[in-house]
Amino acid sequence: MLDDIDRRILRIFQAEPSLTTAELAERCRISAGVCWRRIEKMQAAGIIEGQEAVIDWAALGYAVEVSLRITLDKTQPRAFDEFTEAARDVSEVIEIQTFLGRVDVRLSVLARDMTHYQQVYRDRILTLPHIADIEALMHIARVKRDEVLPV
Amino acid sequence: MIELDEVDRKILRALAQDATQSAGALGRRFGLSQPATWRRIRRLEQAGVIKGRRLRLNAEALGFGVTVFLGVKLGRKGQISLEDFERAVSAIPEVQTVEHVLGLYDYRLRVVARDLADFERVLRRRIMTLPGAGDVEANVLLSEERLPGPIG
Q1: What does the mean pLDDT of chain B come to?
Q2: Count of structural domains, chain A
Q3: pTM of the full predicted structure?
């Protein structure tokens, strides 16, 4: 179980992942040794999985991001597997999520502009297997994006 | 706009998986010197392609067993300040991301909770009481995978 020091480490580390262990220890007001051991322990327990670089796709020229909410034809027993397998091969797809609810699968799709999006949508998305219905949500802005867990 | 070559894409892809890798280690992997790799990473950062780091935590191991995506429609459009709604929704700790979208909903929220009972509490006490919140649709996340995208 986590104690208050662990939670303090996670809170500050989530807010500023670029901190070194020494800087993190200072912010948490604990010694660097304690901080290092706590992080090691949380890594070993699978709580801290790693750190990833965050890519700004707009800086790479991908100005359009669309959320496609897809309902699958569930009379096909392998609909989920075959759909997600095929969606993984579309390089413009950056996220695949499956749900319990009105929507079965959601894809995040990137495109350079609307012309490119239309091309990806027609040639790569609509050709994916077992689609019964698609709804599109166009991203306008990300208001909050840090994905911080309230530990 | 920045142009990437094959090596830039490999470096970017490697850092998106593990941002703690040193320039030396990446250089050895891709056949570059440490300074050359460091310069490439710096160029990606300066162009804003790498805009920071994210700590990847296991939500379930921390007791957050449920992730729900909410589509929120604003009621009485025109009378509600988007800024007020955005400020209030962003202040809820359980709300991890807020996206302003165009389509069936106005906002898309990612919400974490300990379990479904806890989610119901967040929904009733915090989301439904937001200024301007109208129709809400909830979808419980079953699985999620992130792909490398067009740099893959």
Answers
A1: 93
A2: 2
A3: 0.90
A144 has pLDDT over 70: yes
Strand partners, B55: A51
Q: Is A13 domain-assigned? A: yes
User: Is B124 in the same domain as B75?
Assistant: yes
d(CA A94, CA A31): 40
ipTM of the complex: 0.89
| CA distance linking residue B150 with residue A60, whole number of Å | 10
Please check whether residue B11 touches A, CB under 8 A: no
The answer to whether the Cβ–Cβ distance between B102 and A143 falls below 8 Å is: no
Residue B15 has pLDDT above 70, yes or no: yes
Measured between CB atoms, does A18 come within 8 Å of chain B?
yes
Residue A88 within any structural domain of the chain: yes
Between B56, B62, B101, which is nearest A137 by CB? Answer: B101
> Are A73 and A97 in the same domain?
yes
Angle at A97 between CA A91 and CA A100, to 5 degrees: 155
